[in-house]
Amino acid sequence: MSDYENDFSRRLFLKGAGATAGAGALSMLPIQMAFAAAFPERNIQVFVPTRAGGGADRNLRAFTGVWKNYLKQNFEAGFYPGAAGRVGYETYMGKAKADCYNLIFGNMGPEVLNWVVKKPTFPLDSYFYFAQVDADPACVFVSSKSKFKHIDDIIAEGKKRTLTVGTSRLAHPASLGALVLAQKTGAKFNLIPLSGGRNTRGGVTTGEVDFGVLPASSVLRKKIKVLALFDDTNPLPKRMPDAVLTNDHFKLGLPPLIAGARAFGIKKEAVEKHPDRFKVLTDTLQKVYTDPAYKKAVVKTKAPWEFIKYGNVEDCAKYVKYVTDLGQEYRTLLTGKK
Amino acid sequence: MEIDWGLFGELFVRTFSFWWVILPAILLGLIVGAIPGFSAANTIIILLPMTLAMEPEIGLIFMVALYASSRMGAGIPAILVNIPGTAGAAATPLDGYPMTKQGRAQQALAISFVASVFGGLLTTLIALVAMPWLSQVAYHLHSVEMIVIMLFGISLIATIAAKDTLKGLIAGFFGLMIGYIGADVVYETPRGTFGFLELYDKVPLIPALVGLFAVSEAFAVIEGESILTKRGMAAMQKAGWKETWEGVTLAISRWWHIIWTSIIGLIIGIVPGAGAAIASFVAYQQSKTFSKTPELYGTGHLDGLVAPESANNGVTSGTLIPLLVIGVPGGATAAIMAVVLQYHGVTVGPDLFENQPELAFGAFTAMAVTYAIMILTVLPLARYMSRITVVSTVYMAPIIISFTLVGSFVPRAYVFDMYLALAFGVIGYVARKTGYHVAAILIGVILGPLLENYFLRALRISEGDILVIFSSGLGNILWVLLIVSLFVPMYLDKRRTRQREQAVPTTTDC
Questions:
Q1: Cα separation, B39 vs B216, whole angstroms
Q2: N or C: more exposed end of chain B, with fewer CB within 10 A?
Q3: What ipTM was assigned to the predicted interfaces of this complex?
Q4: CATH number (domain holding residue A217)
Q5: Contact B186 A336 (CB under 8 A)
Q6: Nearest-angstrom CA–CA distance, A257 and A323
Q7: pTM for the whole structure
């Protein structure tokens, strides 16, 4: 393992721990709280490292549509797609002021796996996630016309021949799920990156690949059948009646592999300079999750409410470390480099 | 999914009653389509708050009308000032702009409008009645087959290179090299980005498009007083309503050409991830292949204008088919429309035919009605639009550069893209001055990354076996057709030359 890799995991761990300690220390700063009343005085800018109109956009609109009522200010989203989120993060870290008026809203799993594949230009501990919005488990899915009716059919066939597996991209938690499953069961899977969830669904539905792996919420469609979930429970048993839980079924002994974990992130420097502002942000956003208006907004978009889950700084850091460690384990497969 | 003629009839009548939604959507679509950088997809996102306030049915009609008209709008600046509004109109100026230079802008616009409307209308009606069968196309056109389809488009480089083979091929390969800049699709390893983060996601198409065509054109036209030739200027000054009517009749006389090129667009549109740019280049290449006068392509050939315009409008209805039948959008705008409908609580996909058939089929009836209304509204404008060509280049060049630079900025909001457009403008200008064809460069830039994408995917699926490209029956048929379409014109050309040579001595003898 290279020096970078050692440094990588340690930094990520310290990042989460440091941020948690920083946030906890806020309660001991009563004087600074006086300034909190003035924050925010203007709109909050949110950097989104994906294209407008996608899942992150939908998720962000639903959340900030309610959050703004508590902050008494609006949110302005800026979309910076490219290089699987790298452009958005580099833009945020390079251009956004560290003043708590600038946040980033990304999908933690695929985006931190980017750093496993190629280090960014900024230090990894210079930002952290402070509020997870959803927890969308990775799943194995097939076309409803597929000959595979059960996950065991896939494993049995995978022991006879190499199966092609459609995935959004290689460095994605769902891809890691397929790799873990292959390793634990002895099946042979060939990951085919199909550039995004839409194309992956297309590849599976039209039979270009044998099956696919994606976040579960993106495959809840009529002509698609979910056969396995990388989670400890099936949050939607009625909509995914055929889904077995990989941990139970194959005794994988893994924590849930969340493929869609969207979260707000912030520069560490911003929190260090303005802990009072950060407290306003975290206090107000927590109220969103229990607000009926938020549930209504999510349900209206047909996104499953069951996947909405709050995670604090600690939860986010724990998830990031888990995905990063798993990514390091399969790094050669994700990068093609020995 | 059964065909219910009664329902279709009702839907048509009902959709016509929403003319007050369709008309402003058409006007907006024409404007955003004509401005490089703007597109139906980003306009729908910008107007999201407005469409959310509408009823789902009205919102859908609005989006469909905007989508269809923006496709036609993109061809207007391509014809008038050599600026394709979108990549889908990149093949339009090849013959459209030479017509403008000759003072036939009004005719060219009328031909483009008629080809777009009838191509779009025809494919929409075909899609409406044959949706269950057409959706099967997506099940058969996988990476291997798409490699060959891409090569149909890319082979246009070879035909462009026919006049000066070496320069044509150099330009084409230069375009392909530019097209491969960015992260590869498998391991996302950046290549040739020169450290620019903005190039990780490939060279953005709009700056390349407007740079190569529009900015270089602006640099070139400033050398003269007008973009028109002297004869062209004289023709424009005499032009009246007659020219529009001539354009209409010329386009109608090419009805068979409109039909088959629009069907190429429809079929390519059905394939998720393919798009109008591929369709228009493939249609143009095929049109030239089967033409009796291929040597006139690029000089203002009417079929060379009809083919890309009817094909890119054929794509429009094609992209909706996989969205509605298998739940996978065929293109970016169809995907955005699905998201907007999701905000309304409408899940777009096969369920829609059972739950809300008026919406599922309504998308196509809205498109058909849009085309019907569009021809009536846009055709009279051809005369006035064409007047822009008489504007002096002193004003025209700065306007073109300003508009195109703003257009380069819009899709990603990166200032870098404006510099990129200028850089491509310089490349395009040098290419023009030295006899290299900018269209050959552009074909490489647009189709190169797509070819690489499908090729790497096929190789990955076959675990590195190069022979995978001959592993599909349909793919092999397409390979044969590709070879035929490349070599038959060469054979016919030689035969014509031989016939001419034989004819000359006979005449002399007389």
A1: 22
A2: C
A3: 0.81
A4: 3.40.190.10
A5: yes
A6: 8
A7: 0.79
Report if residue A246 sits inside a domain.
Answer: yes
Contact yes or no for A208 and B142 at CB 8 A: yes
pLDDT at B2 over 70: no
How confident is the prediction for chain A on average, in pLDDT? 86
A53 to chain B, closest Cα gap in Å? 6
Tell me the chain A residues in contact with residue B275 when contact means C-beta distances shorter than 8 Å. none
Cis check for the bond before A40: say yes or no (omega within 30 of 0). yes
Rounded to whole angstroms, how far apart are CA atoms A138 and B333? 27
What would the pLDDT profile of A249-308 be if each residue is shown by its tens digit?
998 888 888 888 999 999 999 999 999 999 999 999 999 999 999 999 998 877 889 999
d(CA B231, CA A130): 68
Which of A221, A239, A295, A333 has the highest number of chain B CBs within 10 A, making it the mutation to test binding with B?
A221
Same domain as A102, residue A34? yes
Cα separation, B76 vs B94, whole angstroms: 13
Contact B188 A117 (CB under 8 A): yes
Domain assignment present for A255: no
pLDDT the model gives residue B505: 59
Whether residue B316 lies inside any domain: the answer is yes
Nearest chain A alpha carbon to B196: A87
Q: What is the mean pLDDT of each run of 10 residues along chain A (338 residues)?
A: 38 44 45 58 94 82 94 92 86 93 94 90 94 93 93 96 94 93 94 88 90 92 89 90 92 84 96 95 94 91 87 94 92 79
B252-278 pLDDT, tens digit per residue, is 999 999 999 999 999 888 876 667 788
Q: Do the bridges between strand A75-79 and strand A44-48 make them parallel or antiparallel, or are there none, so unpaired?
A: parallel
Give the pLDDT score at A5. Answer: 37
A201 contacts in chain B (CB < 8 Å)? 327-328
Identify the pLDDT of residue B74: 86
Residue A76 main-chain phi, psi, to 5 deg: -120, 120
Residue A108 sits in the same domain as residue A213: no
List pLDDT tens digits, range B273-301.
667 788 888 899 889 888 888 888 888 99
* Residue B170 domain boundaries: 5-505
Contacts of A87 in chain B (CB under 8 A): 197-198, 200-201
Residue B200 with chain A: CB contacts under 8 Å: 82-83, 86-87
Torsion of CA B329, B334, B338, B344, to 10 degrees: -160
Whether residues A225 and A302 fall in one domain? no
Taking the C-alpha atoms of residue B338 and residue A291, their distance in angstroms, rounded to an integer, is 27
**Together in a domain, A107 and A123:** yes
Residue A61, judged by CB atoms within 10 A of its CB (0-12, 13-18, 19+), counts as: middle
Measured over the CA atoms of residue A81, residue A86, residue A88 and residue A90, the dihedral's sign is: negative
In angstroms, rounded to a whole number, what is the distance separating the alpha carbons of residues A75 and A64? Answer: 7
CB neighbourhood size of A288 (10 A): 24
Number of domains in chain A: 2
Using a CB-CB cut-off of 8 Å, the residues of chain B touching A86 are 197, 200
Query: Is B510 part of any domain?
Result: no
Q: Which 376-405 residues of chain B touch chain A by CB within 8 A?
A: none
Task: Give CA angle at A222 (A221, A226), nearest 5°.
Answer: 65
A120 and A7 belong to one structural domain: yes
Residue B316, CA distances (Å) to A143, B36, B54 in order: 26, 18, 23
Q: Residue A276 sits in a domain of what CATH number?
A: 3.40.190.150
**Does one domain contain both A128 and A272?**
yes
The answer to whether the Cβ–Cβ distance between B457 and A198 falls below 8 Å is no
For residue B1, the distance in angstroms to the closest alpha carbon of chain A comes to 14
CA distance B112 to B124: 18
Q: In Å, what is the CA distance from B61 to each residue of A271, B22, B316, B371, B374?
A: 47, 7, 14, 12, 14
